[in-house]
Specification:
The structure holds two protein chains of two kinds. By secondary structure, chain A is α+β, with helices and mostly antiparallel strands. Chain A has 17 helices and 18 strands. In chain A, the strands form four sheets. A seven-stranded antiparallel sheet of chain A has the order 15-12-14-13-17-18-16, with helices on both faces. Chain A has a five-stranded antiparallel sheet with strand order 5-6-10-8-9. In chain A, α8 runs antiparallel to α13. The two termini of chain A are about 35 Å apart. The C terminus of chain A is likely disordered. The model of chain B has no long low-confidence stretch (mean pLDDT about 95). Chain B is α+β, with helices and mostly antiparallel strands. Chain B folds into two domains: about 170 residues, 2-Layer Sandwich (Uridine Diphospho-n-acetylenolpyruvylglucosamine Reductase, domain 3); about 140 residues, no CATH class. Chain B is built from eleven helices and 17 strands. The chains are: A alpha+beta, B alpha+beta. The interface between A and B is large, with 101 and 87 residues.
Chain lengths: ~475, ~350
């Protein structure tokens, strides 16, 4: 296929970065055609692998001059097609900018390039008794640049927050190639909340070339409870009772029976396979704090009808308790040819109802659903099992996923808690937001990128698309401009 | 008698008229933070204080939604009844401080380094933008990455991106026990060392401030943990600790009764900075420093900048040079502003000429 890119543009890319840092060979480009959502693929025209900030700036200036769309990419572990290449554009892979520039133990910060892996930060900080708190399940591979683009969470965000709560400052290159610093290392910056806006903006506003993240002291004591329940509803109520009781566990995870059975068969964590739901409830801090919290949690859990409460006896058992939860996705991968991971968030009080409705959808479409849940913060990950080789199965999975997302919005939640909108959930943005709100997103995008070159086509659906999808959100019957035509 | 009422339609029609007539308006809450920044260049005032009331509060979900005109003291009381609090400890400079003003100014109190800033606790909001459109962003759940994070963009925007109608905030349980310890420390450098040393360890600290003579440490958590920490950290017990922290949060300490300009400096917390003459109070474990100083604004901005920080003249006479933005950042602010308020009718020139 002939390149859609201007040959002078390609030549200049090679001059700027050197031939070794430019990929145009179709076979080598395949690596970049999708992220972890492999159902969505598109081959880029060219991949550039800059090694310096100056190269990123020069590349963006070049793209700006030639009006070439740019998709920035970290490790490609995203789950929403957020780095799906634009057909007429290039991908800037930031994997070669992977230096930890400084660990500052006094100020408890790490200054890193975007291609640094999430876990590598904690590994480097460990010598000082510090760590980087957000721990997305892909932390061994995912990069901080990608975490910032997606505002990644993890199993400990109930207590320690998402990426947005743990990044102090970023250097971002604009579409014009200008370098901006957002935020500050003094825990505050003057003016609009632009740092928070940039975090989770999915590569639509600029390319992050450096980040200063907050490091926390490693807690001296960690303890985890594994709690079994005879119904999901009881487990959900127990979560509410724990939080209402004044406890903020470091992690609070829920798995349903299907998830328990699948993971037990895979990792043999000695999970109670007869239980309808289990909770994993972790506390950390000073030994005395953890001890107090555990006593209180036990009494709340017992009162909530727990059928069994186990306290990890040692570090090994604690790791084993977590091993099941952490292996949930690969465990599902073992029993099903394919699975589709959803990411809605709901107010926790609707948990039982939402899980009941999901099992109804599952029966209606005849696809199994396994539920794992960041229960503490209401973030649900239903895994829809399907077989891509079976005609019509993927469409059914997509339909089921859509029903789940719409349900999340109906009960006052959101279509994505931590994976991002990307390409995957574009249609469901029409369900969550009104035309005026989508219009506001558009204008905000324009403020940063008037020519729509940065990750075009993601996150913000056109009104035309929403019309074709046949949904438009209206807040409680209230429209801001009732006179405007609605698609 | 305070009546809860929803004035959003009313406020929307006022903004619509201002938009059509291109008449700038000053958004006015309780006025407790009106001294901050420049006065808006507007003849008309949009009073939002009547738009008040708590519209949603689920203690077990750790979320509260309040109309922007709700008094902070009202909200504090409602949360306290359920054993919860706003963990960013916002200042109440007087009884009229509102939820909307707190978010618009982006102020956080002594607990900020340990629990988070106002922005960290904002989950969602509804606004009327400068085109009089009613818009909602974020929501009432902790984790939400659908679309741009416009709700957090609002913090610190001084109302320029929209009239805040409702704000959803994450709340936290009130700690079981709190205790204040004091240490007499004569050297700033020594106080900074102690503060960084403790922050690098896992102590249950919830505030850390040096007032020039005394280093104050607040511990929060389970009683057993607090006792253990107090035993290990030493120091003298301050039985009036609660008063001290409230006085610090609300700027009622003697330090704040200054006739000089009061500067707020945000800087990497371990920074040793002594070139600017004046009185210092080091809050946030060193990351936020209050400076009462007669030195000229230009010199303060420059020196703080050299230390990778930024300064704003919080109260005082340096109005024309109270805040500085890099040219690129100023330009971005203007473009973002244009995206929400194309005719610059909401609180114009509140930051500086043209913004």
């Amino acid at each position: 296929m002939p390149s859609l890119l201007n040959k002078y543009f390609v030549e200049q890319c090679k001059t700027l970065l050197g031939k070794d840092n430019i990929i145009t060979d179709p076979e080598a480009l395949r690596v970049y055609e999708c992220d972890a959502l492999v159902a969505l693929r598109s081959l880029p025209q060219l991949v550039a692998l800059p090694e310096t900030l100056e190269q990123v700036q020069a590349l963006l200036r070049l793209c700006y001059r030639y009006k070439v769309p740019v998709v920035a990419r970290g490790a490609g572990t995203g789950l929403a097609g957020g780095v799906l290449p634009a057909p007429d554009g290039i991908v800037i892979g930031l994997s070669r900018m992977q230096q930890i520039l400084a660990i500052d133990p006094l100020n408890r910060t790490a200054r890193v390039q975007p291609g640094v892996r999430n876990l590598a930060i904690s590994e480097a900080a460990k010598a000082y008794g510090l760590y980087y708190a957000p721990d997305p399940s892909s932390q061994i591979a995912c990069t901080i640049g990608g975490n910032i683009a997606e505002n990644s969470g993890g199993v400990h965000c109930l207590k320690y927050g998402l990426t947005v709560h743990n990044v102090l400052e970023i250097n971002m290159v604009t579409v014009e190639g200008e370098l901006l610093t957002l935020g500050g290392s003094g825990l505050a910056a003057p003016g609009y909340g632009l740092l928070a806006l940039a975090i989770g903006s999915e590569g639509l506003l600029g390319i992050v070339v450096e980040a200063t993240v907050r490091l926390l002291p490693c807690p001296p004591c960690t303890q985890v409870l594994l709690v079994a329940f005879d119904s999901v509803e009881q487990a959900g109520n127990a979560v509410a009772a724990i939080v209402a009781g004044g406890l903020i566990p470091a992690g609070l995870e829920l798995m349903d029976n299907a998830a328990i059975r699948v993971t037990e068969a895979f990792v043999h964590a000695n999970y109670p396979v007869e239980a309808e739901a289990i909770l994993l409830c972790e506390f950390d801090g000073l030994f005395e704090q953890v001890e107090t919290d555990i006593v209180m949690a036990q009494s709340i859990l017992t009162a909530s009808g727990a059928s069994e409460i186990r306290i990890a006896r040692d570090t090994n058992e604690r790791k084993l308790f977590w091993a099941g939860r952490k292996a949930a996705f690969p465990a599902v991968g073992r029993i099903s040819a394919d699975y589709y991971c959803m990411d809605g968030t709901i107010p926790r009080k609707h948990l039982a109802e939402v899980l009941r409705r999901i099992s109804e959808f599952s029966r209606e479409l005849d696809l199994q659903v396994v539920n794992v849940f960041h229960a503490g913060d209401g973030n649900l990950h239903p895994l829809i099992l399907y077989d891509a080789g079976k005609p019509g199965d993927y469409d059914k999975a997509e339909k089921l996923g859509g029903q789940i997302l719409e349900l999340c919005v109906q009960v006052g939640g959101t279509i994505t808690g931590e994976h991002g909108v990307g390409m995957e959930k574009l249609n469901y943005m029409c369900v969550q937001f009104s035309a005026a709100e989508l219009g506001q997103f558009e204008r905000l995008k324009t403020a940063f990128d008037a020519n729509n070159l940065l990750n075009p086509g993601k996150v913000i659906p056109s009104l035309h698309r929403c019309a074709e999808f046949g949904r438009m959100h209206v807040h409680g019957g209230r429209m801001s401009h009732p006179d405007l035509e609605r698609f | 008698m305070i009546i809860d009422q929803d004035l959003s339609l009313n406020l929307q029609s006022r903004v619509e008229r201002a938009f059509q007539d291109r008449t700038p308006i000053t958004i006015s809450g309780g006025g407790s933070k009106a001294f901050f920044g420049l006065p808006a260049a507007a003849d008309e005032t949009l009073d939002v204080t009547g738009h008040r009331g708590i519209v949603y509060y689920e203690p077990s979900e750790l979320v509260v939604t309040a109309r922007a005109g709700t008094l902070l003291k009202t909200l504090d009381k409602v949360l306290e009844e359920q054993g919860q609090m706003l963990a960013f400890e916002p200042p109440c400079f007087n009884d009229q401080a509102t939820v909307g003003g707190t978010v618009a100014c982006g102020f956080s109190g002594p607990r900020r380094p340990f629990t988070g800033s106002v922005s960290d606790f904002v989950l969602g909001c509804s606004i009327i933008n400068g085109k009089s459109e009613y818009l909602r962003f974020g929501g009432r759940v902790m984790k939400n990455v659908a679309g741009f994070d416009v709700a957090r963009l609002m913090t610190g925007a001084l109302g320029q991106l929209g009239v805040l109608l409702e704000v959803s905030l994450r709340v936290m349980p009130i700690p079981e026990t709190e205790m204040t310890l004091c240490y007499r420390v004569s050297q700033v450098s020594r106080a900074l060392e102690m503060m960084q040393h403790w922050q690098g360890q896992s102590w249950p600290i919830s505030a850390l401030v040096y007032d020039g003579t005394i280093l104050h440490v607040r511990l929060s958590g389970a009683e057993a943990a607090i006792k253990k920490a107090a035993h290990q950290l030493g120091g003298d017990l301050d039985l009036d600790g609660r008063l001290f922290w409230a006085g610090l949060r609300d700027h009622r300490l003697d330090f704040f009764k200054t006739s000089e300009n009061l500067w707020r400096i945000n800087i990497p917390p371990a920074t040793q900075m002594s070139k600017i003459s004046g009185q210092y109070l080091l809050d946030w474990g060193g990351a936020q420093r209050w400076l009462s100083s007669p030195e000229p604004a230009a010199r303060i901005h420059q020196i703080v900048r050299e230390h990778n920080g930024h300064a704003v003249c919080f109260r005082g006479a340096e109005k024309n040079d109270w805040i500085r933005f890099d040219p690129g950042l100023l330009n971005l602010h203007k473009k973002v502003r244009y995206a929400f308020d194309p005719c610059s009718i909401l609180n114009p020139h509140r930051f500086t000429t043209g913004l």
